[in-house]
Amino acid sequence: MTNAQGAGEADLGMLAGRLMRALQEELFERLAEQGHPDVRPRHGTVLAFLDAGGARATELSARSGQHKQIVGTIVDELTGLGYVRREPDPADRRAKRIVPTEHGLDEIAKARAILAAIEDRHRQTLGNEHYTAFKDAFERITRAQTTWRA
Questions:
Q1: Helices marked H in 65-126 — which ranges?
Q2: Is residue 20 within a helix (H) or strand (E), and if so which, with residue range?
Q3: Cβ-proximal residues to 87 (8 Å cutoff; 6+ apart), any chain
Q4: 56 Cβ contact partners less than 8 Å away, ≥ 6 residues apart
Q5: Can you tell me the distance from the alpha carbon of 147 to that of 150, in angstroms, rounded to the nearest whole number?
Q6: For a tag on the chain, would you pick the N or C end, based on fewer CB atoms within 10 A?
Q7: What are the CA-CA distances from residue 91 to residues 41, 56, 87, 88, 96 (Å)?
Q8: CA separation (Å) from 21 to 15, 29, 84, 101, 149?
Q9: CA distances from 76 to 43, 57, 100 (A)
């Protein structure tokens, strides 16, 4: 495959895609080993952006960058799997908050620990200074790309 940089050289999209797939593969395999075989990458649209207090679907949509309808479908799946529940929002009884169950809190804690261990491994590979510079640059590029229309 060729790209703007030349034949065989991976472009930013290819690298980001490979990284995402490899991270997901390790994360979800380890989560399955630790009692969460039902979670899938799409569930991160909700679980990665929840804390114990929960959030409205509109907040999850804004945090994840996914449409509210997609978030709603994923919340339905996670409710069926026992990871979250819908509760009335104390600030507005007409609205619902998506709140993690104990099972959901366990998954969130384990996922965050697994991801921290992966990052620690890469930090050791590159060294703290290079890893910090890499993450800073990656965050800046991501921010710049998400605002390309502005």
A1: 68-81, 102-126
A2: helix 12-33
A3: 54, 96, 97, 99
A4: 89, 95, 96, 97, 98
A5: 5
A6: C
A7: 31, 11, 12, 9, 10
A8: 10, 12, 25, 27, 27
A9: 10, 11, 13
Strand partners, 55: 98
Tell me: the pLDDT tens digits for 67-93? 999 999 999 999 999 999 999 998 888
Pairwise CA distance, residues 44 & 129, whole Å: 29
Backbone torsions φ then ψ of 113, nearest 5 degrees: -65, -40
What the block records as the tokens of 105 is 């809190």
Per-residue pLDDT, 146: 87
Structure token pair of residue 35: 């009692």
Scanning the structure block, which residue is given the tokens 């050289």?
9
Mapping DSSP to helix (H, G, I), strand (E, B) and coil, where does residue 123 land?
A: helix
Backbone angles phi, psi at 55, to 5 degrees: -160, 155
List pLDDT tens digits, range 33-70.
999 999 999 999 999 999 999 999 999 999 999 999 99
CB contact at 8 A, 100 and 52: yes
